[in-house]
Amino acid sequence: MSDLDNKEISGSYNRIISEIFMDFLDITWMRFQMYQEEIRYRNIPFLAFKIREESSEKFNYICHVIEKYGCIDEHMKWVIFAHPGNRRTTYILSLEVVKEWNIDTYNNGERKCISQKDYFGEEQFRYYCDKAIEDIPRLAEWLNKKLPLFEKYRLFMTFDNQDERRECGGSCYIQLCFCKLPKDAETKDILDLDENVFWQNDSLYIHGDYQNQFYNEYKDIFGLGINARMKESLFDTWGLTYFNPEKIPGIIERANENKPEGYEDLTEWLEKAREYNGFYILGV
Question: Measured between alpha carbons, how far is 110 from 250 in angstroms, rounded to an integer?
Answer without folding.
Answer: 55
